[in-house]
Write a structure and sequence with these properties.
Number of domains: 2
CATH superfamily of the largest domain: Class I glutamine amidotransferase (GATase) domain
Largest sheet: 8 strands, mixed
Helix content: 40-55%
CATH architecture of the largest domain: 3-Layer(aba) Sandwich
Distance between the termini: 38 Å
Radius of gyration: 22 Å
Strand order of the largest sheet: 5-2-1-6-7-11-10-12
Low-confidence stretches: 323-327
Order of helices and strands: EHEEEEEHHEHEHEEEHHHEHHHHHHH
Structural class: alpha/beta
């Protein structure tokens, strides 16, 4: 698995170093748990092989040249301090390079004004994007064909991710770690790098094409029904029958449309609803379990812990400790 971090003068060092450390932690967790996955290869590149000065006052050395990168799974583009225009003008060589990698199916992640690299390459035309709050107006004027989402910290348009800040980029990184290494590893990394339980990536991002945007209309109808009846204690066979399907057919269509089983989907939206109630109410865990469709609190606890790698009670304690600490 190949990750590439672009370096550019006047960048924020944390916009590369933080996700690198998070990915290394994920790799170590994967190895410790003996999860099968491709070895992690991390490269840093720049327009030439000279050291790159950062806003932190330290220099970062590229490990490879742009020309030597034949392909990548993920490319990170750094945040730039203050006016990005001088740095962009010196790095026009990135434009054809990014276009080629994007065409080859690489995931691209920009942060802050580093999202301008993507816009300069025309990769954000007609797509949703965000950038640092201080540069929103200039970004809109410079790139009028980009669908700027001012109220979102994160946008995802297909394989392109934009984060408004380094903190938001950490959320994107957790999301990508989950995508490649699984939810358990992602949650472990998240807890090690953030004392608090971070609010879900899905709540902060504008996503062009959520889980309801696919071609199977029956599956969409079932998903909407599940969301409206999240507190109903109902089995998969009953849901399938309600929509004129066999349970096996419903399972097959869900897997094809959204990549998970109907039961897994229902559990995921129930746990998401439970997270909200644990964060914002004083309801007991048993009351919350009932409200999200579980008559058996023990079963709810097992489902929750399997998805979140933490018990409902511990989740609430961690969130409340952060929210009400006054820090």
């Amino acid at each position: 698995m190949n990750l590439v971090f672009v370096l550019a003068d006047n960048m924020l060092a944390a916009s590369s170093l933080l996700p690198i450390e998070m990915w290394r932690a994920a790799e170590q967790a994967r190895i410790a748990s003996r999860v099968a996955a491709e070895p992690l290869n991390i490269s840093t590149v720049a327009r030439n092989m000279e050291p790159v000065a950062t806003q932190a006052g330290i220099s970062l050395n590229p490990s490879e040249s742009l020309e030597s990168v034949a392909g990548a799974d993920v490319v990170y583009l750094p945040a730039l301090w203050r006016n990005p225009r001088p740095v962009l003008s010196k790095n026009t060589v990135l434009t054809p390079w990014l276009k080629k990698l994007f065409g080859d199916g690489c995931l691209l992640a920009g942060v802050g004004t580093g999202c301008c690299f993507l816009a300069e390459a025309g990769l954000l035309d007609g797509k949703s994007a965000t950038t640092h709050w201080h540069y929103l107006d200039q970004f809109q004027a410079a790139y009028p064909h980009v669908l700027l989402k001012r109220d979102y910290f994160i946008t995802q348009s297909g394989s392109i991710f934009c984060a408004a800040s380094v903190n938001a980029l950490a959320d994107v990184t957790v999301h990508l770690i989950e995508r490649f290494y699984g939810r358990k590893t992602a949650l472990l990394v998240e807890r090690n790098f953030s004392h608090e339980i971070r609010r879900p990536y899905e709540k902060y991002r504008y996503f062009e094409g959520d889980d309801l945007q696919h071609s199977d209309e029956i599956v969409v109808e079932i998903q909407l029904w599940m969301k409206r009846h999240i507190n109903d204690s109902v089995g998969m066979s009953e849901i399938a029958k309600r929509f004129g399907l066999s349970q096996r057919s419903m399972h097959r269509r869900f897997q094809k449309a959204i990549g998970m089983s109907p039961l897994s989907y229902l559990q995921s939206i129930r746990v998401e609803a439970a997270n909200e109630l644990l964060e914002s109410t004083n309801l007991t865990v048993g009351e919350i379990a009932f409200r999200v469709g579980y008559n058996d609190q023990g079963h709810f606890n097992r489902v929750f812990q399997k998805q979140m790698s933490i018990t409902p009670s511990d989740y609430r304690k961690t969130v409340r400790a952060k929210v009400f600490s006054g820090n």
